[in-house]
Amino acid sequence: MSVRTKARSIVTPLTIGSFLLMGVTGILLFFKLKSGLVTVAHEWLSWIFVIGGALHVWLNWAAIKSCLGRWSGRVIVGSFALILVAALASLGSSEPGPHRQAAAARQATVVLLDAPLSTLATITRCSTEEVRNRLSAEGISVTSDNVTLNEAAHQDGAQAMRGLTALLRDVELGPGGARGGRPAR
Predict the structure, then answer these.
(1) Do the beta carbons of residue 132 and residue 117 sit within 8 Å?
(2) pLDDT exceeds 60 at position 176
(3) The predicted structure's pLDDT at residue 20
(4) pLDDT tens digit sequence for 105-124
């Protein structure tokens, strides 16, 4: 058995299995079904598909050259190459995508955690006394309205996030995520 034949016996199942994984997880992501390990498996194990695909091309180079020698092969591969170029060109786009939205959410969280409690009271349309009460219920003692949530939680990120969640819990969002009025109490 030649080295290429032995390599094919590993590379072909590797490529098929990783293609199956990428295809199914990609379809799930398309339909916004991102729970469990779907996103992690798709993003991290795609490297196996890339490596398997590259090895498959290398092991079958003669057949691939023959395929690309035909008009249909050149049109199909060329079309995907153009789509790839367009996708890469859009990386600098200002269009809001899931990654930009996640980055904006992280930035907003950092800003809120470092805002004085008096500012958080204004943002959440609560009195500073109500902010203090909600944070107290989360085990965060507040010494001043000018202290930040991070400072009040003594730089304990998990506790600060619980406090922020408690403060934002009753803030109503209107259409498109815009904040509407506070619920009647």
Answers:
(1) yes
(2) no
(3) 97
(4) 788 888 888 888 888 888 88
Per residue in 124-141, pLDDT (tens digit) is: 888 888 888 888 888 888
And the tokens for 143? 């010494």
Exposure on the CB side of residue 66, measured as CA atoms within 13 A: 4
Say how many Å lie between the first and final Cα of the chain, rounded: 78
